[in-house]
Amino acid sequence: MWGLKMIHILKTKNWKGPFSKQEQEDAVVALEGGAVLYFPSLPFGLEPDETILLSPHYSHPKSKNIGYDLKSRKVTGVQGTEEATPSFESMLDRYATNTKILLEAILPQYQKYLERGRTSYRPVEIAGRQSSYRKDDTRLHIDAFPSSPVQGKRILRVFTNINPHDQSRFWRLGEPFSKVAERFLPHCPHPLPGSQWFLERLCITKTQRTPYDHYMLQLHNRMKADEIYQKEAEQQEFSFPPQSTWIVYTDLTSHAAMQGQYALEQTYYLPMDGMNSPELAPLKILEKALGRPLL
Ligand SMILES: O=C(O)CCC(=O)C(=O)O
Ligand SMILES: [Fe+2]
Question: Closest Cα to atom 10, ligand 1: which residue?
Protein backbone atom coordinates (compact mmCIF):
# COMPACT_ATOMS: atom_id res chain seq x y z
CA MET A 1 0.00 0.00 0.00
CA TRP A 2 1.84 3.07 -1.12
CA GLY A 3 1.56 6.19 -3.19
CA LEU A 4 -1.81 6.96 -4.67
CA LYS A 5 -3.23 3.68 -3.43
CA MET A 6 -3.38 5.27 -0.01
CA ILE A 7 -6.26 7.40 -1.27
CA HIS A 8 -9.36 5.65 -2.53
CA ILE A 9 -11.55 8.19 -4.31
CA LEU A 10 -15.35 8.08 -4.37
CA LYS A 11 -17.04 10.77 -6.38
CA THR A 12 -20.53 10.85 -4.91
CA LYS A 13 -22.02 14.20 -3.93
CA ASN A 14 -24.68 12.61 -1.76
CA TRP A 15 -24.30 11.22 1.76
CA LYS A 16 -26.76 8.47 0.85
CA GLY A 17 -24.78 7.35 -2.18
CA PRO A 18 -26.00 5.16 -3.78
CA PHE A 19 -22.99 2.90 -4.28
CA SER A 20 -22.82 -0.27 -6.36
CA LYS A 21 -21.95 -3.63 -4.77
CA GLN A 22 -18.54 -3.41 -6.40
CA GLU A 23 -17.91 0.06 -4.98
CA GLN A 24 -18.90 -1.18 -1.51
CA GLU A 25 -16.59 -4.20 -1.73
CA ASP A 26 -13.68 -2.17 -3.06
CA ALA A 27 -14.19 0.41 -0.32
CA VAL A 28 -14.01 -2.06 2.55
CA VAL A 29 -10.92 -3.72 1.10
CA ALA A 30 -9.17 -0.38 0.63
CA LEU A 31 -10.12 0.88 4.08
CA GLU A 32 -9.06 -2.26 5.94
CA GLY A 33 -5.83 -2.22 3.95
CA GLY A 34 -5.01 1.24 5.35
CA ALA A 35 -6.29 3.55 2.60
CA VAL A 36 -8.26 6.72 3.18
CA LEU A 37 -11.72 6.70 1.57
CA TYR A 38 -11.82 10.16 0.08
CA PHE A 39 -14.99 11.93 -1.08
CA PRO A 40 -13.69 15.08 -2.83
CA SER A 41 -17.04 16.79 -2.99
CA LEU A 42 -19.23 15.64 -0.17
CA PRO A 43 -20.02 18.83 1.74
CA PHE A 44 -21.74 19.29 5.05
CA GLY A 45 -24.01 22.34 4.84
CA LEU A 46 -24.49 24.71 7.74
CA GLU A 47 -27.83 26.35 8.45
CA PRO A 48 -27.75 30.18 8.14
CA ASP A 49 -27.89 30.58 11.93
CA GLU A 50 -24.98 28.15 12.35
CA THR A 51 -22.35 30.20 10.51
CA ILE A 52 -21.77 32.06 13.78
CA LEU A 53 -20.20 28.81 15.03
CA LEU A 54 -17.33 29.28 12.57
CA SER A 55 -15.10 30.94 15.13
CA PRO A 56 -12.28 29.54 17.25
CA HIS A 57 -13.31 31.61 20.25
CA TYR A 58 -15.92 29.26 21.67
CA SER A 59 -13.40 26.46 22.07
CA HIS A 60 -12.04 26.07 25.59
CA PRO A 61 -8.26 26.71 25.58
CA LYS A 62 -7.66 23.49 27.51
CA SER A 63 -9.42 21.21 25.03
CA LYS A 64 -8.57 21.41 21.34
CA ASN A 65 -11.99 20.19 20.21
CA ILE A 66 -15.62 20.76 21.00
CA GLY A 67 -17.09 17.34 21.75
CA TYR A 68 -20.57 15.92 21.59
CA ASP A 69 -21.96 12.78 23.14
CA LEU A 70 -24.96 11.51 21.21
CA LYS A 71 -26.47 9.54 24.05
CA SER A 72 -26.48 12.27 26.68
CA ARG A 73 -26.73 15.06 24.07
CA LYS A 74 -24.02 16.84 26.03
CA VAL A 75 -21.58 19.26 24.40
CA THR A 76 -18.14 19.64 26.04
CA GLY A 77 -15.07 21.83 25.54
CA VAL A 78 -17.02 25.06 25.04
CA GLN A 79 -15.78 28.22 26.70
CA GLY A 80 -18.11 30.84 28.15
CA THR A 81 -21.47 30.88 29.85
CA GLU A 82 -24.40 29.01 28.41
CA GLU A 83 -26.41 32.19 27.78
CA ALA A 84 -23.57 33.87 25.87
CA THR A 85 -22.71 30.84 23.75
CA PRO A 86 -24.62 29.65 20.70
CA SER A 87 -25.68 26.03 20.68
CA PHE A 88 -23.51 23.48 18.90
CA GLU A 89 -25.86 20.61 19.50
CA SER A 90 -27.97 20.77 16.37
CA MET A 91 -24.96 21.00 14.00
CA LEU A 92 -23.12 18.16 15.74
CA ASP A 93 -26.20 15.99 15.88
CA ARG A 94 -26.90 16.49 12.19
CA TYR A 95 -23.29 15.70 11.32
CA ALA A 96 -23.48 12.49 13.34
CA THR A 97 -26.61 11.49 11.42
CA ASN A 98 -24.99 12.28 8.05
CA THR A 99 -21.99 10.08 8.83
CA LYS A 100 -24.29 7.25 9.87
CA ILE A 101 -26.15 7.50 6.57
CA LEU A 102 -22.86 7.55 4.64
CA LEU A 103 -21.51 4.47 6.41
CA GLU A 104 -24.76 2.61 5.86
CA ALA A 105 -24.47 3.35 2.16
CA ILE A 106 -20.78 2.66 1.56
CA LEU A 107 -20.01 0.01 4.23
CA PRO A 108 -23.27 -1.93 4.64
CA GLN A 109 -21.51 -5.02 5.92
CA TYR A 110 -20.40 -3.11 9.04
CA GLN A 111 -23.94 -2.06 9.95
CA LYS A 112 -24.66 -4.78 12.45
CA TYR A 113 -21.47 -4.08 14.32
CA LEU A 114 -20.65 -0.39 14.30
CA GLU A 115 -20.84 1.48 17.60
CA ARG A 116 -21.08 5.24 17.54
CA GLY A 117 -18.53 7.17 19.59
CA ARG A 118 -18.10 10.89 20.04
CA THR A 119 -18.68 13.64 17.53
CA SER A 120 -16.20 16.53 17.46
CA TYR A 121 -15.92 20.00 16.03
CA ARG A 122 -12.41 21.36 15.45
CA PRO A 123 -12.56 25.12 15.09
CA VAL A 124 -8.96 25.93 16.06
CA GLU A 125 -6.15 26.30 13.50
CA ILE A 126 -3.86 23.28 13.86
CA ALA A 127 -0.61 24.97 12.79
CA GLY A 128 1.16 26.73 15.64
CA ARG A 129 -1.00 25.23 18.37
CA GLN A 130 0.99 24.47 21.52
CA SER A 131 0.78 21.06 23.13
CA SER A 132 2.84 18.33 24.74
CA TYR A 133 4.42 15.93 22.24
CA ARG A 134 1.96 13.17 23.15
CA LYS A 135 -1.01 15.36 22.32
CA ASP A 136 0.64 16.84 19.26
CA ASP A 137 -1.25 15.47 16.26
CA THR A 138 1.12 17.23 13.82
CA ARG A 139 3.44 14.28 14.49
CA LEU A 140 2.84 11.04 12.61
CA HIS A 141 0.94 8.62 14.84
CA ILE A 142 -1.69 5.94 15.03
CA ASP A 143 -4.60 6.70 17.35
CA ALA A 144 -4.57 5.28 20.87
CA PHE A 145 -5.93 7.11 23.89
CA PRO A 146 -4.57 6.84 27.42
CA SER A 147 -7.91 7.06 29.23
CA SER A 148 -10.15 5.27 26.70
CA PRO A 149 -9.01 1.71 26.02
CA VAL A 150 -10.69 0.16 22.99
CA GLN A 151 -10.05 -3.45 24.08
CA GLY A 152 -9.48 -4.63 20.53
CA LYS A 153 -12.20 -2.64 18.80
CA ARG A 154 -11.21 -0.75 15.67
CA ILE A 155 -11.27 3.07 15.53
CA LEU A 156 -13.02 4.26 12.36
CA ARG A 157 -13.36 8.01 11.87
CA VAL A 158 -15.20 10.24 9.43
CA PHE A 159 -13.94 13.80 8.83
CA THR A 160 -15.36 16.73 6.86
CA ASN A 161 -13.60 19.99 6.13
CA ILE A 162 -16.14 22.79 6.65
CA ASN A 163 -13.70 25.68 6.24
CA PRO A 164 -15.54 28.70 4.76
CA HIS A 165 -12.36 30.46 3.49
CA ASP A 166 -11.21 27.92 0.93
CA GLN A 167 -8.53 26.50 3.25
CA SER A 168 -7.64 22.85 2.95
CA ARG A 169 -6.79 20.53 5.81
CA PHE A 170 -3.24 19.23 5.36
CA TRP A 171 -2.32 15.76 6.51
CA ARG A 172 0.71 13.57 6.21
CA LEU A 173 0.12 9.83 5.73
CA GLY A 174 2.85 7.51 6.96
CA GLU A 175 4.09 3.99 6.35
CA PRO A 176 1.95 0.84 6.74
CA PHE A 177 1.16 -0.39 10.25
CA SER A 178 3.29 -3.52 9.86
CA LYS A 179 6.32 -1.28 9.27
CA VAL A 180 5.46 0.86 12.30
CA ALA A 181 5.22 -2.27 14.44
CA GLU A 182 8.47 -3.67 13.05
CA ARG A 183 10.27 -0.49 13.94
CA PHE A 184 8.86 0.33 17.38
CA LEU A 185 7.55 -2.90 18.92
CA PRO A 186 11.00 -4.25 19.87
CA HIS A 187 11.47 -1.13 22.04
CA CYS A 188 8.12 -1.27 23.82
CA PRO A 189 8.23 -2.48 27.42
CA HIS A 190 5.72 -5.20 28.31
CA PRO A 191 2.83 -4.16 30.56
CA LEU A 192 3.64 -4.48 34.26
CA PRO A 193 1.76 -7.26 36.03
CA GLY A 194 -1.27 -5.79 37.80
CA SER A 195 -0.97 -2.42 36.04
CA GLN A 196 -4.28 -2.81 34.18
CA TRP A 197 -6.19 -3.29 37.41
CA PHE A 198 -4.32 -0.43 39.04
CA LEU A 199 -4.98 2.06 36.21
CA GLU A 200 -8.67 1.26 36.27
CA ARG A 201 -8.96 1.47 40.06
CA LEU A 202 -7.28 4.89 40.06
CA CYS A 203 -9.69 5.96 37.29
CA ILE A 204 -6.80 6.71 34.94
CA THR A 205 -8.56 4.49 32.43
CA LYS A 206 -12.35 4.30 32.00
CA THR A 207 -12.23 0.55 31.45
CA GLN A 208 -9.41 -1.94 31.62
CA ARG A 209 -6.32 -1.19 29.55
CA THR A 210 -5.72 -4.52 27.84
CA PRO A 211 -2.23 -5.59 26.66
CA TYR A 212 -3.44 -4.55 23.18
CA ASP A 213 -4.23 -1.04 24.41
CA HIS A 214 -0.89 -0.94 26.18
CA TYR A 215 1.09 -1.70 23.01
CA MET A 216 -0.99 0.65 20.86
CA LEU A 217 -0.37 3.49 23.30
CA GLN A 218 3.33 2.64 23.37
CA LEU A 219 3.47 2.79 19.56
CA HIS A 220 1.55 6.08 19.54
CA ASN A 221 3.89 7.67 22.07
CA ARG A 222 7.11 6.31 20.59
CA MET A 223 6.24 7.39 17.07
CA LYS A 224 5.49 10.92 18.26
CA ALA A 225 8.61 11.11 20.44
CA ASP A 226 10.99 10.11 17.64
CA GLU A 227 12.01 13.29 15.79
CA ILE A 228 14.15 11.43 13.27
CA TYR A 229 11.31 9.04 12.47
CA GLN A 230 8.99 11.99 11.94
CA LYS A 231 11.29 13.38 9.27
CA GLU A 232 12.61 10.23 7.67
CA ALA A 233 9.73 7.75 7.69
CA GLU A 234 8.18 7.07 4.32
CA GLN A 235 5.28 9.49 4.03
CA GLN A 236 3.16 11.53 1.69
CA GLU A 237 1.31 14.80 2.06
CA PHE A 238 -2.34 15.05 1.24
CA SER A 239 -4.68 18.01 1.47
CA PHE A 240 -8.41 17.79 1.98
CA PRO A 241 -10.13 20.82 0.45
CA PRO A 242 -13.26 22.43 1.90
CA GLN A 243 -16.41 20.42 1.18
CA SER A 244 -14.50 17.16 1.18
CA THR A 245 -15.11 14.20 3.47
CA TRP A 246 -12.86 11.27 4.31
CA ILE A 247 -13.06 8.00 6.24
CA VAL A 248 -10.04 6.25 7.74
CA TYR A 249 -9.04 3.64 10.32
CA THR A 250 -6.93 5.95 12.45
CA ASP A 251 -5.67 3.04 14.59
CA LEU A 252 -4.11 1.51 11.45
CA THR A 253 -3.15 4.35 9.15
CA SER A 254 -0.28 6.48 10.36
CA HIS A 255 -1.33 10.13 10.05
CA ALA A 256 -0.45 13.67 11.11
CA ALA A 257 -2.69 16.74 10.80
CA MET A 258 -0.44 19.68 9.91
CA GLN A 259 -2.64 22.62 9.06
CA GLY A 260 -6.29 23.55 8.76
CA GLN A 261 -9.22 24.97 10.62
CA TYR A 262 -12.90 24.02 10.97
CA ALA A 263 -13.48 20.32 10.61
CA LEU A 264 -16.12 17.96 11.88
CA GLU A 265 -15.34 14.42 12.92
CA GLN A 266 -17.33 11.39 14.01
CA THR A 267 -15.73 8.38 15.70
CA TYR A 268 -17.04 4.82 15.37
CA TYR A 269 -15.83 1.60 16.96
CA LEU A 270 -15.95 -1.68 15.12
CA PRO A 271 -15.63 -4.94 17.06
CA MET A 272 -13.20 -7.35 15.37
CA ASP A 273 -16.10 -9.66 14.43
CA GLY A 274 -17.35 -7.02 12.02
CA MET A 275 -14.20 -6.92 9.91
CA ASN A 276 -14.01 -8.21 6.37
CA SER A 277 -10.36 -9.27 6.79
CA PRO A 278 -9.56 -9.45 10.53
CA GLU A 279 -5.96 -10.47 9.82
CA LEU A 280 -5.28 -6.91 8.63
CA ALA A 281 -6.19 -5.40 12.00
CA PRO A 282 -3.49 -3.92 14.26
CA LEU A 283 -4.50 -6.49 16.90
CA LYS A 284 -3.66 -9.42 14.65
CA ILE A 285 -0.47 -7.84 13.38
CA LEU A 286 0.75 -7.21 16.94
CA GLU A 287 -0.31 -10.66 18.18
CA LYS A 288 1.58 -12.27 15.33
CA ALA A 289 4.69 -10.20 16.02
CA LEU A 290 4.62 -10.91 19.77
CA GLY A 291 3.49 -14.51 19.47
CA ARG A 292 0.71 -14.28 22.04
CA PRO A 293 -2.89 -13.12 22.44
CA LEU A 294 -3.29 -9.52 23.58
CA LEU A 295 -6.88 -9.53 24.83
O1 LIG B 1 -8.01 16.97 13.22
C2 LIG B 1 -7.51 16.25 12.37
O3 LIG B 1 -7.49 16.54 11.18
C4 LIG B 1 -6.91 14.92 12.80
C5 LIG B 1 -6.19 14.98 14.09
C6 LIG B 1 -5.84 13.62 14.62
O7 LIG B 1 -4.84 13.04 14.33
C8 LIG B 1 -6.76 12.96 15.52
O9 LIG B 1 -7.78 13.53 15.89
O10 LIG B 1 -6.47 11.80 15.90
FE1 LIG C 1 -4.90 10.95 15.15
Answer: 143
Most ligand 1 atoms within 8 A of CB, residue of 63, 136, 137, 171 to mutate:
137
Domain ranges of the chain: 3-290
CATH topology classification for 3-290: Jelly Rolls (2.60.120)
The answer to whether the CB of 104 is under 6 A from ligand 1 is: no
pLDDT tens per residue, range 238-287: 999 999 999 999 999 999 999 999 999 999 999 999 999 999 999 999 99
Residue 263 near ligand 1, beta carbon < 6 Å = yes
Give the model confidence (pLDDT) of 170-224 as tens digits.
Answer: 999 999 999 999 999 999 999 988 787 777 778 888 888 999 999 999 999 999 9
- Amino acid, single-letter form, for residue 236: Q
CA terminus-to-terminus distance, the chain:
27
Burial zone of 49 (CB within 10 Å; 0-12 exposed, 13-18 middle, 19+ buried): exposed
pTM of the predicted protein model:
0.96
Q: Is 5 exposed, middle or buried (0-12, 13-18, 19+ CB in 10 A)?
A: exposed
Kindly write down the DSSP assignment for every residue of 167-223, as one continuous string: --EEEEE---HHHHHHHHGGGPPPPPTTHHHHHHHTTSSSS---HHHHHHHHHHHHH
| Residue 255, ligand 1, Cβ within 6 A | yes
- The residue whose CA is least distant from atom 9 of ligand 1 is 137
Binding site membership of 251 for ligand 1 (Cβ less than 6 Å): no
d(CA 135, ligand 2 centre) in Å:
9
